[in-house]
Amino acid sequence: MSTEAARTGFAPGALLLCRAAPASVAPVARLLREPMRLTRAGEAWSVLVPGGGPWRDGTEPVDRVVTGWATALAVGAPWPVLALWWDTDHVGFTLASGFRRPVGFVWLAGGVPVGEAEALHTFAARMGLDPVLDVQALDELAEPDPEADARTRLRGLLAVLARGGVVLPAGLAPGAPADRLLETAARMPGSLPVEWPGRRDAEAERDTVDHDRLGLWMPWTGDPGARALALAQVAAGAPLLSWGLRRRSGGWGWVTAGARLLAHGAAGLAYAFTHPRDWRLRAGSRLHALVRLTSQR
User: Fold this and answer.
1) What is the average pLDDT across 68-96?
2) Dihedral pair phi/psi, residue 96, rounded to 5°
3) First vs last Cα of the chain: how many Å apart?
4) Which residues does 31 contact at the CB level (< 8 Å), separation at least 6?
5) pLDDT for 231
6) HSE toward the beta carbon, residue 75, CA cutoff 13 A
7) CB neighbourhood size of 38 (10 A)
8) Distance (Å, rounded) from C-alpha 36 to C-alpha 45?
9) Are strands 46-50 and 13-18 parallel, antiparallel or unpaired?
10) Left if phi > 0, otherwise alpha if psi is -120 to 50, otherwise beta: which for 79?
């Protein structure tokens, strides 16, 4: 272990922040097929706490894994995803939003910045942060400071995020081991387990997902919006998978993200072709209910 790693004392871990309510995040997060806990992180944010299985065996670094997860989540949903990650030698973040290239920044364990300040400006713009005060605070995080170690950098980043509405629950402090964070999240009131459902659970979820704001965009609805999203997922998943396979090392996260986007997009397209009238029937039933409600007033 390096001197910087011993000074930091971080075991690998990560948090995934999504700008959406837990009810909207849960259906999309299940596509990652990674056991997680989900809870609120402010009025407009939710936080996913992964168990860290993919990086525990040491075959894939945590930053590449969570970058792939964040990309998959952001492409499959209409809200941005911010991944905070750390290991024994580095800390950093990655912001994924839609089909745009992810942006992030890294600090060494001793707090030395590694990256371009311009990346922080792009991050601030995509997050909707204050272009003066918040950008100035981010610029300070990109400047060398012998008194600022990795923990100080993370605290500074969290202070900026707090002004953007991110409020991490007590106990979910970046830098803690993944298994400890998962146990802490599991004890929190209102936290939800996120797991890949079995066949029967998936069928039950299809019957109830329409009550969620994201329900109209899930593949089993078969409506035009869902088909468009499925096509977008296939278009994004193919190059991600190809790029990850071409990498001799460190491509696991991209391969996973690409494969899951392709699988989900293909499922959506398959449902659209096999159930072409489902969305019309659903729309008709909703219209009928609206007419009945209006006539009763």
Assistant:
1) 90
2) -115, 135
3) 71
4) 72, 76, 196, 260, 264
5) 63
6) 30
7) 23
8) 16
9) antiparallel
10) beta
Mean confidence (pLDDT) of the chain: 76
Give 186's contacts (C-beta < 8 A, 6+ positions apart). 37, 193
pLDDT of residue 260: 67
Longest dimension (CA), the chain: 73
Token pair in block for residue 167: 């409020």
Question: Position 5: which residue type?
Answer: A
Which residue's structure tokens are 């699988």?
A: 263
At residue 137, what are phi and psi to the nearest 5 degrees? -65, -40
CB 119 within 8 A of CB 103: yes
CA separation for the pair 214, 209 (Å, rounded): 8
Q: Which residues pair with 17 in a beta bridge?
A: 47, 82
Q: With the C-alpha atoms ordered 87, 88, 93, 99, is the resulting torsion angle positive or negative? A: negative
| Nearest Cα to Cα of residue 209 among 29, 22, 23, 18 | 23
Kindly tell me if the per-residue pLDDT of 137 is higher than 60.
Answer: yes
Q: Identify the three-state secondary structure at position 40.
A: strand
Indicate the pTM of the whole model.
0.69
Q: List Cβ neighbours of 240 (8 Å cut-off, separation of 6 or more).
A: 68, 71, 254, 255, 257, 258, 261
Contact 137/124 with Cβ under 8 angstroms?
A: no
Q: Residue 46: what are its φ and ψ, rounded to 5°?
A: -125, 160
